[in-house]
Amino acid sequence: MSKDTSSNLWLDVITIPLGGRLKKPRDHGLTMIIDKGLGLNETKDLFSVSGDYIDFLKLGFGTSALYNQGLLEEKINLAKRFGIEVYPGGTFLEIAIMQNKLKEFIKMAGAIGYTTLEVSDGTINFSQEVRERAISMALDAGFKVLTEVGKKNLQDKEKIGHYLKQIKRDLDCGAYRVIIEGRESGKSAGFYDQQGRFIEDEWEQILIAAGDQRLLIWEAPLKQQQQDLISRFGPNVNLGNIATNEALALEALRVGLRGDTLRPVYLRESN
């Protein structure tokens, strides 16, 4: 059998069970991966295997400050060669705001090649005015802007009305997408309870506030969360904080190549 490096010959044999999956470049059905410290070779392997299914690579937390500068720039450039937007974690920008270094932070992020910035207040508190200024400055500098709503610790959580207003304001200010906080654990953070289940009444209110669920990226590091969101919104729901070693597994879940999402297709077609 001849080797075809541009396609998968299995697709001449079987049909993807859960159809309608959008291909890159796309503006929904986005997958955001959290990188907690991959080496350059690991990053190349990740993109070689799963690059077609990754839209955003987040270098988590403040890890950007811990890389060798040359290695960091190589990782950023590698992501861009694979058509992947790359950005530092929102916590890193929060530190810059806390230290009154936002202008310098944005300038440095551009100089080393980041394409996207995340504006969040998951750990520290700052005013709506500061949030909007951060969004505006990042947009003016040519970045795609993601914002995030929700707190990393439930004890710091505001009433739901606060976040609903924040979603609307962020979108009005030009945010490309609003991330719904879930941390990398998916439990006891943002809008998830201790068992990693989404708080249902808040879920519905968030959807109403956004107006279009395609404007949201749901942080969903746990398989059950991913499955629930795909079940609700289909294969092109935006999902984030996916572990690097789960990128291909998530894509399989999206398209019905795992039992969890194949079963509903089978039951529907059997009736």
State Rg.
19 Å
Strand proportion, as a percent range, falls in 5-15%
Give the total of beta strands.
8
Q: Which fold name is given in CATH as the topology of the domain at 22-89 and 152-167 and 178-263?
A: TIM Barrel
Task: Tell me the name of the CATH class of the domain at 22-89 and 152-167 and 178-263.
Answer: Alpha Beta
Strand order of the largest sheet: 3-2-1-8-7-6-5-4
CATH superfamily name of the domain at 22-89 and 152-167 and 178-263?
A: Aldolase class I
Count of separate DSSP helical elements: 10
Fold and architecture overview:
- There is one protein chain.
- This protein has helices at 40-50, 69-81, 90-98, 102-112, 128-140, 160-172, 200-210, 223-233, 247-254, 259-270; strands at residues 31-35, 56-59, 85-88, 116-119, 144-149, 177-180, 216-219, 239-243.
- The chain has a domain at 22-89 and 152-167 and 178-263: Aldolase class I (TIM Barrel, Alpha-Beta Barrel).
- By secondary structure, it is α/β, with parallel strands linked by helices.
- The protein has an eight-stranded parallel β-sheet.
- Helix 6 (160-172) links the parallel strand 5 and strand 6.
- It contains ten helices and eight strands.
- Residues 1-5 have low confidence and may be disordered.
Brief sketch in words of this structure:
The protein has 10 helices and 8 strands. It has 271 residues and is an alpha/beta fold. It has an 8-stranded parallel beta sheet.
Any descriptors?
271 residues; TIM Barrel; eight-stranded parallel beta sheet; 8 strands; 13% strand; disordered N terminus
